[in-house]
Automatic annotation (TrEMBL):
Keywords: Membrane, Transmembrane, Transmembrane helix
Protein name, UniProt field: Bifunctional diguanylate cyclase/phosphodiesterase
Domain GGDEF intervals: 362-493
Species in which this protein is naturally found: Actinoplanes subglobosus
UniProt cross-references to Gene3D superfamilies, sorted A to Z: 3.30.70.270, EAL domain
Keyword Membrane: yes
Amino acid sequence: MHVLRRLDTPLAAVLVLFTFVQAWFVIGLWHAWSHPVVAWLTLPVLSLLATYECFRTARCTDLDLPTRRFWGRLGIACAILAPSTFSAMYDALGGPVLSQLISIRTQLLFGGGVLTVLWALLRLPTWQRSRGDWIRFGLDTGIVVLTAGVLVWHWSLSRIDFSASPNATPRSVVAIIVVSVVSLITFVKVAFAGAGRLDRGALHILSAGVALSAATGVVAPFIVDRPYLATGLVAFPMSQLTAFLAARRQRRRAGVRPVVRSGSRRYSLVPYLAIALLYVAVLQVEIPQSGQEAWMAIAATAVTVLVVLRQLTMLRENAQLLDTVDASLKQLDHQVTHDSLTGIRSRSAYTGELAARLESGEPFVVALLDLDDFKVVNDRYGHNTGDALLQAISGRLRDRLRPEDTVARLGGDEFTLLLPGTTEADTDLLLHGLLAEVQAPVLADGREMAPRISVGVTASRPDDTAGELLRRADVAMYAAKAAGGGRWTWFDPIMDRLADDDARLAADLRQALVRDQLFLVYQPIVELPHGRLTGVEALVRWRHPEHGLVPPGVFVPLAERNGHIVELGRWVLENAVAQAARWERELGPAAPDKVSVNVSARQLGEPGFPAETAALLSGAGVAPSRITVEVTETAVLGTGTALQAVRELAAQGLTIALDDFGTGQSSLSLLVDCPVGWLKVDKSFVDGVTSDSPQAVIVDSLIGITEGLRMQAVAEGVETAEQAERLHRAGYRFAQGYHFAKPMHADDVELLIAAQEDFSPYLRM
């Protein structure tokens, strides 16, 4: 069953009125209308309908700002034509007799509308007009106006007896034709040169309307004896109908990126066409008269044709040469403006587009994307795999975005997006789908990976610069990383304050060592079930002179970010080794069997770190077997320098403990590749050990793995007796947590050891 489409009232009204007035004019060639005002009254209605359609298009939010402004200005031009039609109607019907005269008032009103259209066209952004362009445009205009004037005079005005036709004057006819021809040149120039995101089809419709309106001047000789008719009855409706249809096409094509067409012809045929028409007119005058003048006219025409053909041949060859140069320049431009690895926009091109967008005043959104733990991919699998991952990510970003969006690579694993015309809700919806697409498993260099991306988002402001926009997006991106990664975060001004606080805290941290603000505490590691102390883990603390105790969860990540972690880690290791030596001297066999020290990925990556550690132990007189180096999965994940450093430390006799097992990018193959002696099961698994939970299953399974691999398992974060008893039944022999003891000073560790020695007979029962 066919469903009738809803009647398009404005379009139907325009078509009916246009058809009516054209039919009125054609019938008037044979029939004298007694009430010509009927046809004239349709013209202002057509102007108002065209104005309405242009303003509708100007309010279309799917169009960019320059395009909307153009249609708004065209609507103003159509609105100006409404009083122009009333003025023309008064010229024709307001006197004692009907007249075809066009008054100065009407010509000025009509010219105002035309100038508004030309101004709107020339304000469009992409037709770059150099001084040479203006000179050529002026010459083309002069040639066409002069030729049109001569031809109109020869084939039209010279054949009219204006003395016997007081209703028409050559001035009025020529004025309209000249203005129309200049308008047509402008439209044709812009239509072929391109005009921003203005639809090319809409421009062609407008150009056709101007051409047809100008062509109505040739009708003037046939209606000089029909004062109830006027060329305006054809020209005005034609211009308003085409403006209406062009505006409607532009609105329906909103969101479609205009096709940039490149032609090989780089010269205008307008001057040659003008010469051809003038010579046709000259030959028409001279040949019937025969004689010497006729032969001279024929010879001059032939020579001119040969010269023109020769020049066109040279121009064609030059155009082909320019095409070759253009192709090379385009290739060079592509290399400059596009990233060589991924093929998307480069940093320089992106910042240039940012600056252009800011200058236009159109609001947009910037998003900065960074791959989480990309360095691990490069270190573990090599840079070829990392490059393949970047290419896959960039392809997904490019395919997922809208045609008007821009994606660029800033460098390394950082990408950025430019999203014009989106609200916060639109951006959130786009990023939700984008992250789902980008973070899906990907095959890179034959390896399946699940990338994670952190995104910082910010909206443009009127007083922004490209650098400020990227800075805000960068701040928001780091906030997304700090929140766990794999998400997007909008910039909030409070982030700047927090970043300033971090910067001040980082500066204070650099001075904390020399100002003796750092100190170590030690958390006991005990044997199950009786809780006898068997080792300690050294933990760093910071007593800030203004803020008091700064949590390690604040200053340790800060040290990681600013690179101070290497110096901080060296201080912790030196003091922990010195304390181990002191305990061994003072407590003898009662000293803790193991002193554990956390070592960061950056420390492991430092050249000579294993040799530095060996020299430190030798100088302090501490056996390597008494020191345990605790590393995280992320720190040694791969086959790079970090893993090699761990192997060298193990070869020296130090015990290697894998800390927080299960919380990073866990891989059981790491337990084979890395010389792990102790496996520390993270608190997040221990918390659920007393219930029927997946965590309990994992805890039970890990003890079997460690026994099979001849490792020791340490349960972290034990807080209740019930957890300790359940872990012991599962097979765990070592644990640490607040249930046994909180981190304490070295003196308190000695008191704890002394107390346990006093009760040691009871602990062995």
